[in-house]
Amino acid sequence: MFVLVNLKTYPCDPIEVAEAVRDVDDRTDARLAVAPQAAHLERVAETGVETWAQHVDPIEHGSNTGQTLAESVADAGADGTLINHSEQRLKLADIDGSVRAAERAGLETVVCANNPAQIGAAAALGPDAVAVEPPELIGTGTPVSQADPDVVEDAVDAAAGVDADVSVLCGAGISTGEDVVAAGDLGAEGVLLASGVAKADDPTAALEDLVDPL
Ligand SMILES: O=C(CO)COP(=O)(O)O
Question: Which of 5, 6, 130, 175 to mutate to test the pocket of ligand 1 (most atoms within 8 A of CB)?
Answer without folding.
Answer: 6
